UniProtKB/TrEMBL annotation, chains A, B:
This is Thiamine-monophosphate kinase. The lineage of its organism: Bacteria, Bacillati, Actinomycetota, Actinomycetes, Micrococcales. InterPro entries: PurM-like_C_dom, PurM-like_C_sf, PurM-like_N, PurM-like_N_sf, ThiL-like. Pathway: Cofactor biosynthesis; thiamine diphosphate biosynthesis; thiamine diphosphate from thiamine phosphate: step 1/1. Substrate binds at D58, E283, W329. Catalyzes the ATP-dependent phosphorylation of thiamine-monophosphate (TMP) to form thiamine-pyrophosphate (TPP), the active form of vitamin B1. Residues 33-151 form the PurM-like N-terminal domain. Mg(2+) 5 binds at D232. The gene is thiL. Reaction mechanism of ThiL seems to utilize a direct, inline transfer of the gamma-phosphate of ATP to TMP rather than a phosphorylated enzyme intermediate. Pfam families: AIRS, AIRS_C. ATP binds at G135, D136, R161, S231. Its EC number is 2.7.4.16. SUPFAM superfamilies: PurM C-terminal domain-like, PurM N-terminal domain-like. It comes from the Bacteria.
Amino acid sequence: MAEHHTVAQLDERALLERIFPRLGTADVPVGPGDDAAVIEAPDGRTVISIDTLVQDQDFRLEWASGYRSSGFDVGWKCAAQNVSDINAMGAVPTSLVISLTLPGNTPVRWVEDMADGLRTALHELGAERCAVVGGDLGRGAVLVVTAAVTGDLQGRAPVLRSGARPGDVVAVGGSLGRAAAGLALLEGTSGYGGMPPELQALAAAQSRPLPPLALGPRAAQAGAHAMMDISDGLIRDAGRLARASGAALALDYRRLDHFEAPLRQAALMLGADPRHWVLGGGEDHGLLAVFPPAAGLPEGFVHIGSVAEAAACPAEVTVDGEVPDVLGWDHFKG
Amino acid sequence: MAEHHTVAQLDERALLERIFPRLGTADVPVGPGDDAAVIEAPDGRTVISIDTLVQDQDFRLEWASGYRSSGFDVGWKCAAQNVSDINAMGAVPTSLVISLTLPGNTPVRWVEDMADGLRTALHELGAERCAVVGGDLGRGAVLVVTAAVTGDLQGRAPVLRSGARPGDVVAVGGSLGRAAAGLALLEGTSGYGGMPPELQALAAAQSRPLPPLALGPRAAQAGAHAMMDISDGLIRDAGRLARASGAALALDYRRLDHFEAPLRQAALMLGADPRHWVLGGGEDHGLLAVFPPAAGLPEGFVHIGSVAEAAACPAEVTVDGEVPDVLGWDHFKG
């Protein structure tokens, strides 16, 4: 079949036959093709989450900079943001089920690329036990990709948002601000094709994020009191963790400013403040974690502040003792 | 807040606070509000599936007949079609995670109704162990409701599509054709408001389907060789089961024609053939099951044919020995 064929020219069965061979084999009791899949839940529990990408809300097929999001990018991002939620519980991802809503003029090749992006992301992010075990296909006016993801706690307690206690150490694992800088570059008018490699790498942090999947289980093993995925920006997500814990997070910008270094060139080019990307940028899918003060931080985490009594602070989250002027991303208001 | 407010006037947190209290309490290790939920998987396995409803593809906010799909209808249908996939494996539904994509002008009241419809459907269908444990909210041009559902096999083997053997008895549990007749009525030009109650009941079979949740586990306990959800019409789904089993299904219309009786009034009014609804209509979410010949059928199933050698039949599915002229629904081609 020629490259320019669209999904409107195939029925459901024919399209599934194009997708599933690209996803590899799922080593599960029942994989794709039946009414439902069956996965192992070795410790008698299953972690589960769901996340959606909507065209023109969460990604664009064509950006102002001229960059075109490939199916590979969208498949990668779908896998990455879903497995990140499992990572944030201290668990290991075990399966994905995917629902695709496709406009009839979507090229079949785009859908095949999406399957490749899903599989490659799971492999390169280190989610080796995680496979696509099922899915659903339908038609719609815009592309919508939803995945539900499961995880295995390997006998450990889940690390919740609610366990931070005054005196605990606040830490970050992974990067901050890179995906936000990348978003600004993609939405800017400087042509993507002419950007130097270090700026293209920031754009890639937006379109193919790299959640640090080794760090979630490692933090759980190290006795983290609380943890969450930073998907909507450090300040907004720290506020959620603080609220869930009934405590305040006092962040120290001196410990955060090294995250600005890789963003300075993009900030200069766009006339932006890199501090806003560090504090307010989401979608890097790093981890915000809180550890008891006596324990050393596990490898991969950096100390960024401490947990305080809520009553002793002017806000749920402070930076250098002040209320930050950065809000971050509201998924719904956009 | 007044009834006419739209979701564009709320942020994610405020909207979630409107939805979650209506969903009841989930008796699970970790419920809504963290990065992911944690559910019990008592026999060391979890059944999982995903299904999406897209506005103007799977439901209409306003039909030609004047009927308006409520949020309650869409919530009910989302719950029903998802738990049906778990039922078809012989399992019991244990949790739902829901992703909602909402246009900004969606009334908040519509979303609250949807939550009510989800909860009421789970209760009235008998999915007592199943609760909504998590979700995701986002914006988009049309309403898209995706749910992933989990189930518990209670120590039994899953009942797959692939186990039918020549000589087995083919049976149906639940209704056939009612949802298809209801769809034709909703899309017809006769005003919904003026329809007699028995026709409005057919429309309800489309907007609030009633999958027979007791029958899936019962069929598994009775030793069913194969089973699936009839979501795309008896003939199409029977073809899938036949193909998965490497066998043919020989159906006997004499055993099916009693399904026509409740459809005759609608067929007469619309000039339709009720046989097409019985053989080709999906979305009742009844069960197609195959039992060994020696066993009696469990209560709730009716005998509709037998499994034959594929080589001995002119097609994967025959009705009274002939290839049926009814295709059923392709989710993707629509």
